[in-house]
Each structure stands twice: as structure tokens, then as C-alpha cells.
Amino acid sequence: MRYNGNKTKGRILTDYFFKWLTLAISSICAVPLILILYFIVSKGISAINWQFFVNIPAPVGEKGGGVLNDIIGTVMLVIMASAIAIPIAVIAGVYLAENKNSPTANLVRFCAEILQGVPSIVIGVIAYIWVVKPFHHFSAISGSVALAIMMLPVIIRTTEETIKMVPNHIKEGSLALGVPYYKTMLRIIIPCGYSGIISGIIISVARIAGETAPLLFTSFGNPYISYNPVKPIGSLPQTIFLYAMSPYADWIQQAWGASFILLSCILIISLVSKFLTRRWKIQF
Amino acid sequence: MSQTTTARQAKGIKFKEGLFKWTMSNSALFSILLLSAIFVTLFIGSLPAIKVSTYHFLTGTTWDPMTNRYGALPFLTGTVITSFLALVISFPFALALALLLGEFYRKGVIADIFKNVIELMAGVPSVIYGFGALYFLTPAIARLEGGLGYPTFGVGILSASIVLAIMVIPYWTSIAREVISLTPNDIREAAYSLGATRFEVIRYTILPYTRTGIIAGMLLAMGRALGETMAVTMVIGNTNALPKNIFSTSQTMASVIANEFTEATTDTYLSALIEVGLLLFIVSAILNVLGKQIIKRLGKI
């Protein structure tokens, strides 16, 4: 066959063009992100001052409203959700790693996958039916139940992956020394996987901290500071939703401020988890 | 003192052993129980509405709680159209990003930049996307609508689809990238050794090889898009009527629950909303299982 210079040139050009097209299209994806980040930072910072952190919301038109109640609420919701989800999820993850191919484990994995895909609003409905309806009022605990259901599959999966990476000889060594199985698990295997498990927990916290849909009709929102788990409680994402949809300029301004706080918390949390995985990687 | 365990200690250890194993298997079984309980609860909760509206739930176009008529077709259409449009819009972006990270730049500065962009995109909460969209996207869409001679709401199906597309991109990208990296290296290298350019390698080996995987990613992304609530609720306009065109305001299954659940005054009304939730649950579960199974099968080859 004769070498056809022109055709080759065309092919090379196509290749070159395609590469730059891919790069260009990919770069466009960053535009909305940059826009959102830029506006949240520029508008958010101007909305934030000391009062914003220490005051509760003020009536429209009055100065000095803050979001302290929502910050407390979000922290409480996350802590309670973690308290519900972490023990169950970590132990279930260990179970999955220990029984890799048993039919039960496969079924559990299957269910956890589906659970992860359940829309958050449906989980809100479930928490409403399970917790709000029997007690006849909205409560912080019902919001935490909804968030805990969302945390569960994430922690189960990360724990399983982490525990799987712990080499078998460590477990066998412990068992050979006569350490009972439960102690081997709790004292040797789980501590070996701490970094992975903790970063999984942190990732799940970052995911649920910004969730609004499951809280709409569970924790409901509360313009006052509340520490009571059986009473409605405010949360940052829900306040952002309320303020952003309102027609008042100063509320919208506060929504930017609240978004800034929420987003920076989530980013810091994700950075911490990244740092953790890098710093304490399981190495044997 | 002897070092041997006494009978009592042994008994204690045995008990703890049993307790631990019991806790372990029960925690695992908990997620099975939870999922079944969710399904059963939703089903029981929606029974009153199923009795009232029967098949009209899927075919009726009037949603009127006052007269107990619950036709969810407008929401179903709204959901399908927004999700479908979102997938169409996000497809080129997700594919480009996946190719970039899975083929062109697997390591290095550019890969790191784009990886971080995707992670950030996935990390931004839905409500903030909605808020952002209210401020940049809806005015732009309103101007577009004005130019085309439609009523300038700004909010509507198109706005919702664009926000959904942005939210779905990171998810779809990460699946597509995984699938692209599953392409066996010998196929790739065989193509290169025949003198193919990179574009030709992608076009004739990687894309055919990963087609199923990318479709699986589409199913999973669709499952995500269907259930996305907050951002959609904020920009879709929330009207319970069949959408006429892509600029008209509408309602999705998720947004109708978010909007009306706390206002539901009668039991049947509430139950109709729970039925919407049940439908959402079933559809997203099916999409999720299908997508994951396809990907699992690909990984085994």
C-alpha cells in the first residue's frame, strides 16, 4: 500500500481536534461551579458578621438576624443521626467483609445498594410515617432518623472495603494466640481500619449535612434555639430554602450567608476526610 | 496461679462471642429489614389512595384533593421530561470528562484539577444548586423566553433540566470513567500498534467496549435525577398541569411531595402523596438495580 500523506495528516488533525474538544467541553462543566462558588463567597461574606453567628432570626426588615438556631440544629441533627447509624453500619460492614460470598451478605449488599439509591424525599416520607405520625408532632429525632437512613449504606460500604483490605494474617495471628473472635474483631481488626471507617463516616456526614428534602416534614424548622430532640428544630439547608424562595432582599442576603457557612463546613469536612485517608492509609 | 482460663471465664467468653456474632448478623440483616419495611410502609400508606383512584392515578390529569381526584400524570410527565432532558444535556459533558480522566489524562495536574472539580460538584448540596440557579439561570432563561415570545417565567422545565444536568454530571462521569478504565489494555494497545490515532482508539475500541457501561451509568444517573428534590422544586415553577412545552412550569413527583406533604389535610390526600413516593421508590430501585447489575457483569469479563 502506498503511504498517503494527506489522509494521515487528516487523521492526526482529527485526533488533535478531538482532544481539544474534550478538554473544552470538560472545562465548560466547571463554569457553573465557579459561578456558584464565586457568588457564595462574594455575597456570603458580606452577609456574615458576628451577629449572624450569635443571633436567632429577626423579623423581616429588622437588622441583626442570625442563624445560630440553625447551626445548632444542623449540628444536633448530624450528631443524633450519626449516633443512630454508625454502630449498626460499622458492624454490618464488618459482617460483610467477614462473610464475603455468603448469600445473606450478597442480599445485604444488594439492599444497601438500593437503599443508597432511594430518593431523599422518600426517606423523608418514611421518617414522617414512622416517627412524626405516631407522636403527632414534628421532631428533631425524626429528622435524625431520616438522615441516619441515608448515612447507613455509605458507612456500610466504606467499612466493608476498609476491613477487606486488612490482611488476613493479622486476624489469623490474633486467633492463633487464643484471642476470642469478638476481641479480635473489636480490638485488632476494626482499629486497623480506623482511618477508612472514620473517613467513610465523615464522607457520609458531608453528604447528609446539606440534605434538605428529608427534613422538610420531619425536623420541620424552628426559628428559635431548641435543644429538645422531640421538638421541631431548625437546620441550615432548610433555612436556605426558606430564605432563598422568599421575596425579601435581606432574607435572600442571609440565605447567601447561610449557604456560605454550610458550603464551607461541607468542604472542610471533605478535606479532612481526604487528609485522613492520605495520612493514615492502611499499609502492611 | 495457673494461666488457664477457668470454666466460668470460658463461659463468659462464649457468651460474649455469641452476643457479638448475634449483633453482627443482625446489624447486617437490619438493612434488609429496613428496605422491606420502607416498601411495606409506603405500600400500606398508599392503600387508601389506591382504593380511591385505582388506575386513574397513572392516567388522570387532574390532581384535585378537594374532589378526591388524584391523577398523577402531570407529575409523571414532568419527571420524565426533566430527567430525560437532563440526561441529554449532561451526556456530552459526562462523556468528555470521563474520556479526559479515563483516557487522556490519567495522572498529572490536569487530571487533579478535573477530579477536584467533579468532587466539588458532587459535594455542593442540592439546595445551594437550586439557590444558585434561581439567581443566574432563571433570569437567563427568562430572557431567552422573552426573545422567543413565550411568557417570561424563567422557572420551568428547561431551567429544572439544566440544574439537574449539572447535578448529574459528576455521578455519571465517575461511573463512565470507571467503565472506561475497565477496557483491557491489550485491546487498546493492539489498536495503537496498528497505527490508530488516539481518536481512532477511542472511537473504534473504547467506545464500543464501554457502550453498555455508559448506558448503565445513564440508568443510574436517571435514578438520581428522578428523585432529586430541592433544586428542582426551587426552579420548576410548581404547577399541577400537563406541561405544554419545555418552557412551561411544571411539577415532578419529588417536588409535589415536597410542596404538598405538609399541607395535606385529609388522609386520602396524604396517602396519594405517599403513593407518589412509592412509585418514585420503585422506579429508582429498578433503575439502580439494573444499572449496577450491568456494571457488575462488565467488571467480570
How would you sum up this structure, described in words?
The complex is a heterodimer of chains A (284) and B (301). By secondary structure, chain A is an all-alpha fold. In chain A, 75% of the residues lie in helices and 0% in strands. The longest helix of chain A is centred in the first third of the chain and has 43 residues, at 5-47. The radius of gyration of chain A is 24 Å and the shape is flat. The model of chain A has no long low-confidence stretch (mean pLDDT 90). Chain B is an all-alpha fold and 301 residues long. In chain B, strands 1-2 form a two-stranded antiparallel sheet. In chain B, β1 (63-64) and β2 (69-70) form a beta hairpin. At the A-B interface, α1, α3, α4, α5 and α6 of A face α1, α3, α4, α5 and α8 of B.
Question: Which features would summarize this protein structure in a list?
Answer:
heterodimer, A: 284 residues, mainly alpha, MetI-like fold, 11 helices, 75% helix, B: 301 residues, 2 strands, 77% helix
CATH class of chain A: Mainly Alpha
Average pLDDT of chain B, rounded to a whole number, is 90
User: What's the name of the CATH homologous superfamily of chain B?
Assistant: MetI-like
Q: Biggest interface: chains and residue counts?
A: A-B, 85 and 80 residues
Strand arrangement across the biggest beta sheet of chain B: 1-2
> What is the domain total for the residues of chain A?
1
The structural class of chain A is: mainly alpha
Oligomer: heterodimer
Number of E-type strands of chain B: 2
**CATH class assignment of chain B:** Mainly Alpha
Q: Detail the poorly predicted runs of chain A.
A: none
Q: Sheet bearing the most strands of chain B, described?
A: 2 strands, antiparallel
Helix content of chain B: over 70%
CATH topology of chain A: MetI-like fold
> How much helix is in the residues of chain A?
over 70%
